[in-house]
Amino acid sequence: MAGLPTELSDMLDNVVVMVEDWPDRETIDYYEVDTLYGLYQGVPLTERGSNYYGVMPDTITIFRGPLERDFGRDQLVEQVRVTVVHEIAHHFGLGEERLEELGWA
Asked: Which region holds residue 42: left if phi is over 0, alpha if psi is between -120 and 50, else beta?
């Protein structure tokens, strides 16, 4: 998070970033994926209306286990950065297709 541009981090609104070891099986099954490096759960900024208040923070979870398993030390820092940016982009309302077009999938 410290490496994010200030312009980006200043725009984060009502969001918590945390690290967990592994996603649980229920989460993997729900998203129909084999591997999950990160997960955004919340209401994207683009979907918040005038009635958005008094809600719990959105959550970005980074999963340490799959990242460490799949990437060597030389690639790990970069992949964590990509994963964090990817999940933050969901907070800003970008979907998977758009992230893929931009090279952040």
From this structure: left
